[in-house]
Structure to design on (234 residues):
């Protein structure tokens, strides 16, 4: 799925047209005229094609109107800048949760942008390899970051403080019970599913997710658990 030569979204061959046509970038949704797209119709602008992982996540989420965090996560994971494993997942998880929340609530675009900036600032402090070296998976931390931002938690909060830590604990428990070695895709999916249930119970918002999601990235993971992973599929 690391599409470096053809379409960065789906890997299909690029098609060069005789005439320009109106289109939009798959990631930033900005309008363009272009004479190139893939066989499936995807177009990725030069700016998004060259963005670093966290830049891509932030810009995509700012512009996204999606209410489905797993779908957003899959879109982003297909981009070459989001590697099979890496700390960009620590931001990706809270970013898609914050985005889904604001899109469902139809809150002010400025607040959504501000909350995504906060999520990025906090997530970038969660180092690569956190799961193994610190005993706290960055995807789980990401769910706590999302709840902290959306509830306005601080170290002096009462209920908000409790909810933020409980969110991380629930995600981490689920991820730990699934077993190692690490897989940033699997852990992100587990964390987002756990967060959707938590949001329903504690924040009174229904976040649509597909619990039957199948991973599209297992061929890139040499430590893949294969049939032992609940997302494994062909």
């Amino acid at each position: 799925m690391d599409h470096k030569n053809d379409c960065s979204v789906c890997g299909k061959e690029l098609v060069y047209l005789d005439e320009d046509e109106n289109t939009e970038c798959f990631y930033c949704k900005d309008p363009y005229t272009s004479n190139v797209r893939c066989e499936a119709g995807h177009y990725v602008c030069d700016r998004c094609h060259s963005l670093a992982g966290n830049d891509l996540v932030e810009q995509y989420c700012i512009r996204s109107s999606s209410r489905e965090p797993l779908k957003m996560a899959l879109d982003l994971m297909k981009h070459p800048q989001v590697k099979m494993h890496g700390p960009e997942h620590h931001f990706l998880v809270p970013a898609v949760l914050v985005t889904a929340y604001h899109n469902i609530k139809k809150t002010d675009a400025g607040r959504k942008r501000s909350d995504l900036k906060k999520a990025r600032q906090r997530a970038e402090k969660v180092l690569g390899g956190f799961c193994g070296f610190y005993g706290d998976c960055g995807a789980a931390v990401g769910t706590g970051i999302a709840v902290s931002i959306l509830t306005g938690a601080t170290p002096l909060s009462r209920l908000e403080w409790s909810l933020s830590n409980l969110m991380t604990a629930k995600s981490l428990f689920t991820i730990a019970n699934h077993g190692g070695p690490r897989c940033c895709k699997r852990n992100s999916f587990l964390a987002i599913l756990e967060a959707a249930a938590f949001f329903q119970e504690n924040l009174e918002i229904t976040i649509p997710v597909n619990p039957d999601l199948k991973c599209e990235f297992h061929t890139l993971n040499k430590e893949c658990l294969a049939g032992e992973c609940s997302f494994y599929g062909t």
Remarks:
- Residues 53-223 form one domain.
- The beta strands are 14-24, 31-38.
